[in-house]
Amino acid sequence: MKISLALGPRRGLSPQTAWGCLTTNLAIPGFGSLLGGRRIGYVQAGLGLAGVLLTTCCGVRFFWWFFKNWSRIQDPAADPVVVLGELWQAVRWPLLGIALFAASWLWALGTSWAIVREARRAQAPIPPPRLQS
């Protein structure tokens, strides 16, 4: 079985499929854009996955540092500026990962909304039934 990540030609989507793309993008940014035939979904997915990996890896290190330094952080005699500086050094990479994921999520949400609007415009209006007398 051959698996390909290449997109096929863009085709018109039904409103139900477009809403499916939107909900997929809410869960995993970029993948709904790919389902909708948008190449930008590759960038969105890469950015989202990079954000999750950065948050996870660096977040584990941050929690390790935080619990290791808990007594120093809670010490009333400690200089708060020094403690906040050390805290910033430990938390900046996990926060960058969160920001990357949030950016990809918002970008994918905007793309999804464009897919839904395009599907609504492409749908032919259904004429009302004829009244018979």
**E-strand count:** 0
Question: What structural category arises from helix and sheet content?
Answer: mainly alpha
What fraction strand? under 5%
The percent of residues in helical segments reads: over 70%
How would you concisely characterize the structure shown here?
This protein is mainly alpha-helical. It has five helices and no strands.
Question: What can you see in these coordinates?
Answer:
- This protein has five helices and no strands.
- The mean pLDDT is 89.
- It has helices spanning 15-27, 31-35, 40-68, 70-74, 80-122.
- The chain is mainly α.
List keywords for this structure.
133 residues, mainly alpha, 71% helix, elongated
List the SSEs and their pairings.
Elements: H1 15-27, H2 31-35, H3 40-68, H4 70-74, H5 80-122
